[in-house]
Amino acid sequence: MKILIADDDRMNRRLLEKTLEREGYEVIAVDNGRLALEQLSLPDGPRLALLDWMMPELDGPGVCRGVRTQHERPYIHIVLLTSRGSKQDIVAGLEAGADDYLTKPWDSAELTARLRTGQRILQLEDRLVEARETMRFKATHDHLTSLFNRGIIIDLLARELTRTRREQGCTVVMLGDLDHFKNVNDGYGHVVGDEVLREIARRLLASVRSYDFVGRYGGEEFLIVLNNCASTQAIARAEQVRNGIANHPVQTTRGPLPITISLGVFASRDWDLQQVEEILRAADLALYRAKADGRNCARLAKPNASCDALQHLVK
Amino acid sequence: MTQQPERDGPSQVAVNLPELLARVDNDRDLMCELFGIFKEEFPPLLRLLQESVARGDTKRVETTSHALTGMLSGLSATPAAKLAQRLEQMARAEEMLGLADALKLFEQAVANLLPELDRYTTKAEL
Known about the structure:
Chain A is an alpha/beta fold. Chain A contains eleven helices and twelve strands. In chain A, the strands form three sheets. Chain A has a five-stranded parallel β-sheet with strand order 2-1-3-4-5, with helices on both faces. A five-stranded mixed β-sheet of chain A has the order 7-8-6-11-12, sandwiched between helices. In chain A, strands 9-10 form a two-stranded antiparallel ribbon. Chain B is elongated, with a radius of gyration of 15 Å. In chain B, 38% of the residues are buried. Chain B is 74% helix and 0% strand.
């Protein structure tokens, strides 16, 4: 594990360096507070730090305060090392953000024991962060396909539309529905149906850019949000998605299954719609048209065609 | 086994060698390396302290004696470290009276330090 030593006293620095190297630490040693803060601000910087109190440029408590303002960084366990041992000093050091302190001259056994305590605290913090991230993932992703769940993909769409309006760009929305998917579940069972959904999710993700969003909208329905995509490209992009599924059968435990998808495509530039619900309704109507036109195709939602499409559906 | 400090001089032993050896985990090479660093760093700091006391620059006396306290305590030169700490406290409190006397006591405590370190170094290298 990396550890930072910051002490302007060359002798103490060397002694600490040697002691900690013996304990298996990867030691980074600096001689002033500014360099210490720089090291502790690096993305892969040390997460354990031993700081002298009085140092040139920035003192130990100053480094502590600097570190504690960096909320995005993983937690850093800081031990202040000082010959100032009064209660006031200790309180000031801890208030500045130090986790522990040792007075000079230190006892090597106590020093290493306190650092091990620091490591245990960091490990606990890592486990808590990991648990939080797992929970966050579960709360935002579909458990079967690992795509964004319905709530999140709609939130992302709303956010993207706001950005697009502000920048006067274009967002393309695709609502996809697997054709005759009920036949897969009925004919091969839900286990195979799940295998198909997982593979389709993988192919959808593979067919869009890393900054586009793909979510599971419903049972066999998927919502794709293409950020900053020209409306003239909308159908071509939808065809890529469709071909990515139709061109190769899905391999399942019951053998290869030909799967196709119908897509309703909406390009925000062509419309004056503001509400996500209206946009989804327009994409849904286009999807109905794709289904009505024989499935395995993509249809673009057109403002003046929405009434016709509705009438067509009513018929 | 720890080595006992030599007692061939008239003055008090400046360095608690057993304590220092324990701190360096009985690594005599490291101990000699620390002595080497000390011998380079200490004289200019002592000069700076003497000049600062003569000028009555309490801020400089405080920072210099603080640095000396750290070095000396790291070397287990406890009596000298305590005297340096006393200077630091006096300077922080801006106690000008008595600063020169405190410096004299400190100078006496460190007078034999460098020769003593040389003796330890020679012994350690034998």
